[in-house]
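chain below, 320 aa
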Amino acid sequence: MSLTGIVQLKSIWSKALGLSKNDSDWDKDNFVLNLLGIGLLPTFQFLHEHKPDFESFEKWVIQQHGMAIDSSLVDACNNYFVQSEDSNNPYQEAVLSADDLKFWNENGYVIVKNAITFEDVNASKKAIWDFLQKEEEDANTWYQPHPDWQGIMVNLYRHPTLDSNRHSVRIKKAFEQIWGTNQLVVTTDKVGYNPPETDSFKYRGIGLHWDTSLATPIPFGVQGILYLTDTLPHQGALTLVPGFHLIIHEWLKQLPTETNPREVDLTTFHPIPIAANAGDLIIWNHALPHGSSPNRASLPRLVQYLYWSPPITQLQQKWL
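prediction:
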C-alpha cells in the first residue's frame, strides 16, 4: 500500500531508476512535483544519488512536508487539478491593466510592479545570503565558492519566504490574466546570484537562449523572474528580444537548411536589458530569446525564478 496515496509518484520513481521504459507523462510528473513544492531537479538528484526503494522514496517525499501531507493536496495531485483559493471570485481586481496586456501581446513580456512587499524582499534576500554564507555588506565574501552556487544559479528551492513569494496573490493573478484561467500551478525553481565582475571574477551565465524546444509549432508558454534587488540595465539584468514571439515561426522557416537556430547570432535583433526594482516580477513568453547578462555594476543581483501555468501544458515531443 502506498504511504502517500499519490499515484504518479510510482511512475516518477520507476522512470528515474530505469525500471520503466515508459518515457511519457513527464508533464504530469513535473506538475505533481511542483504541486508538492519539491521540484523536479531536487527529486531526481535524491533518486539518482540514493537509489531508494519506493517506500523510502515516499518517506522522503513525506519528510519534505514535515512528516505529513494534507489529504487535499493528495487529491489535487491525483486529479491533476488545483483548486484556486479565489476560483469562486472572478471579479478579483486585475493586476495587469489593458495597456499592460497590450504591451504583453506586442512585446512578449511585461513587468508586474511591486509583486511582493518590501518586507518579503528583505526576507528573501536574507534567506539567500544566509544559504550562501555570504554577507551583503561585505564584498570580500561575495566570491567565496559554495557547492550550491553554480554559474549564476543557486540550488535553493524551499524556504518559507520563497514559498510565500510563489503564492503572492498579485503574482498569481497576473499569470491568471495571461493564461485566461485560474486553474494554475506554480513551479518550484531555483534562485539566482550574480555578483559584479572583477579582474579575477567573470560572468558565469550564458547568452541569449531558449528553454523550450524550437520544433514548430511552439506551444504557448511563459517564464518569470522576480527581482530581489534593484537592478540596473548593466547589473546583470534579464536580457531579451522584444516581439520575437511574433516572428519566430517565420524566422525558423527561413533559416538555411542544417542551420542550428541556437547557434545563430541574435544580437542583430537588438536585445535589451530589463531594468526593474526589487519586488518587481518580469513575465515573458518563452519564445523570446533571453538570458541574464554580465554584472558591471557595484552590487550583486539576486532573483527568484518562478511562474504559474496550467497543471498539464502542451509539450513538444521533439527537442530542437
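Confidence is low (pLDDT under 50) at residues 81-91. The radius of gyration is 20 Å.
thats it, cya
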